[in-house]
Amino acid sequence: MIEGLRRLEYRGYDSAGIALVDDGTIVSDKRAGKLANLEKAIAESPLPPVTTGIGHTRWATHGPPTDRNAHPHVGRARRVALVHNGIIENFAELRGRLESAGVEMASDTDTEVAAHLLEEQLETGVDLTVAMQNVCRGLNGAFTLVAVDSQDPDRVVAARRNSPLVVGIGEGENFLGSDVAAFIEHTREAMELDQDQVVTITREGVSVSGFDGTPAEGRRYHVDWDLSAAEKDGHDWFMRKEIFEQPRAVADSLLGRRGTDGLLQLDEMRLSDQDLRDVDKIIIIAAGTSFYAGMVAKYAIEHWCRIPVEVELASEFRYRDPILTSDTLVVAISQSGETADTLQAIRHAREQRSKVLSICNTNGSTIPRESDGVIYTHAGPEIGVASTKGFLTQLVACYLLALYLAQVKGTRFGDEIAQVMDQLDQMPAHVQSVLDKSEEVYALARDHVGSRSVLFLGRHAGYPVALEGALKLKEIAYLHAEGFAAGELKHGPIALVEEGLPILCVVPPRGRDQLHDKMLSGIQEVRARGACTLCLAEEGDTTIEPYADVLFTLPQVPVLLQPLVAVVPLQLFACELATQLGHDVDQPRNLAKSVTVE
Ligand code: AGP
Question: Does the keyword Repeat belong to this entry (predicted)?
Fold first, then answer.
């Protein structure tokens, strides 16, 4: 169980705990902080050997990350132990009712109410499965619940609504986890569940039902990656390993996209050509890094397909009352496929009868399951909280979508599409050539260990790259970092520039003459005010030399594809700087990999 939690710790690391069923009682230990604290406690006071148990690592929502708020939570009689992801929105009302009935709460969490409610149900004589169904019908919000009953040691029961849960099918053993990584060491056979389902596992079997008790079937699938993909493979951090996996990830995401007739084919598209021809507006919704991939997609789609594209933060989307019709294509980008903000946004779009296409890296996750079509990226599992290969493969999927739309709508000739595909096929080698110069970037990062603030400038497709570079630095180095569209500087942000301030500048390829020259002017303006300019520019671009305090050269690639190579040094820079500062790069403070709460 500890190994399973270790593989899931990237999803939350405010506290960790386990509860075991031992001879009619619940035995439990739980500790604030990282899993290592729990391991140490167990090493000092070992728990009994058993075959049924549950565990949890927490990203705190209700109540601070303390021992008492750590999961599992138990019922009043300690008959039930329960762990929970998500938020039970009506917990205050439920808690009030329980307290009036004399229940004393042992934590500040919303979770604990579910443990008491389950125990109440068990006292009426039903089994844990029925108890779970009955309790879930009375809960609002998003939740994955997993529970054990000390009086029924062979059974573990779980439920899900809007929060991830997968079943691992073994031989003489079965598993539950928020992600297959939890049990990949034991089995690669998995089962996904629908919303509002309860699953019961025993040593021998798995059974699924709706919250109303109606029997249901989960969908079985084989996981196409193994344990090695979930290990660091000699790197100090998952993030660094994942940065170096990018050439492979980009190549894998491009694989099999061209048919024998030379036409693009997107297997999991599921939207008909006619549906796509009717599209008159695209709205891309996403969060964080995925949002920046969406910004790049806007440049590509508008240029190649001449369809207007809006890019919207998923968390804001529903609240502005967006204008959606059945001819609007909503594209949801999410590495995890579980981001609650994005999920709620696509639900809103579908209620308004818009088509939803998702770009996702996680097979069987909720967002693709609730979309009309999906383009899967093939990055493999991304464990570092800071997204890297997830981002590059999202960019690839965005380019593929743009080219596919151009093919269907006839806005680009076949040979033009083939030419871009050929250029994309060369990108893994280009990304590799940037990685081959990682030592140059590391040296630069080491030179800036004392910096309090770093700015990032870009234009056009380089602007989202600047934003992504700044996000990486904020996330893992905890530095003030901001990305700007270079043309906006003079409208305010240039006031931030002072002697020695490092500014990372993403210089567009010379293919866009005007843009390139305008960027140069922006760089001169900040340099004239004392900034230290760290410039990323394509090989052979000598015009930048007089204005660059440091020049890192990028391979020559087309303007729209430049984000694929330009972001890589920024990832390396953040990773190395955070390492030098002594931070936990894979599990930065206050964050979690999948943000399954709104
Ligand atoms: C990226 O480094 C971040 N951890 C975060 O911004 C992330 O991209 C965002 O939460 C969206 O996640 P998703 O792609 O899984 O939906």
Answer: yes
